[in-house]
Specification:
alpha+beta; 169 residues; five-stranded mixed β-sheet; Trna Endonuclease, Chain: A, domain 1
Length: 169
C-alpha cells in the first residue's frame, strides 16, 4: 500500500518545475506585485505560509499553496489532518494565510481562494457537506487524513454567500 508522507509531499510542493506556473499566476492576479519570497521555514509553512508576495506599496500577502495532480471538478478540503485522533485540518486551524492558491497540475488551472471567507464557508456548510459529499481518505505513515471534495460551483457559491453575509453586518 502506498502511503502519503508529509516531507515527501512537502518536497513535491516545493518542486521548482511548477513554481514558474504559480509565479506567473501571481503576477497576473496581483498587478502591483514586486517580488515573491519562497518560504522554507517549516514552522511558518505549518502556519499556512508557503510564499510571501511583496507588493510595490510594501504590503505583504501570505499564500498557502495546494497542488492536486488531477482536476476532478472539485476542491478537496482537509477535514482532519489526523482522522484517528480527530486533529482538525487546515481550514479549522488558526493560520496566517491570506489566500489559498489551489492548482490542478493536469489542467494547469489555478484558483485563488480568500482564506477567511473559505474558512467561514466551511464552518457554515460543514455539516451539509460532510453528509452530501463522500470523504476521501489519504493513508499516511501512522495516520489517515480525511478530506471532503466540494464541487467547484458549490464551493464558489458558498464563498460568495460568506462574503455577502459579511457585507450585510
Amino acid at each position: 500500500m502506498k502511503f502519503n508522507e508529509f516531507h515527501t509531499d512537502l518536497e513535491y510542493s516545493l518542486n521548482n518545475r511548477e513554481n514558474e506556473m504559480f509565479d506567473e499566476f501571481y503576477f497576473r492576479a496581483f498587478p502591483s506585485l514586486a517580488r515573491i519570497e519562497l518560504v522554507e521555514d517549516l514552522h511558518l509553512q505549518k502556519r499556512g505560509v508557503d510564499k510571501i508576495l511583496h507588493l510595490k506599496n510594501t504590503k505583504q500577502i501570505l499564500i498557502d499553496e495546494k497542488k492536486r495532480r488531477k482536476d476532478y471538478g472539485d476542491i478537496l478540503l482537509e477535514e482532519y489532518s489526523n482522522w484517528e485522533r480527530k486533529v482538525v485540518g487546515w481550514l479549522g486551524q488558526d493560520k496566517h494565510t491570506d489566500y489559498i492558491v489551489y492548482a490542478f497540475m493536469d489542467t494547469k488551472r489555478v484558483v485563488l481562494l480568500p482564506f477567511l471567507l473559505l474558512q467561514r464557508a466551511w464552518l457554515e456548510n460543514y455539516h451539509d457537506w460532510s453528509r452530501n459529499y463522500p470523504r476521501k481518505f489519504a493513508k499516511n505513515k501512522g495516520y489517515t487524513t480525511s478530506n471532503i471534495p466540494i464541487p467547484n460551483e458549490v464551493l464558489f457559491s458558498a464563498i460568495k454567500r460568506a462574503a455577502m453575509d459579511k457585507l450585510a453586518v
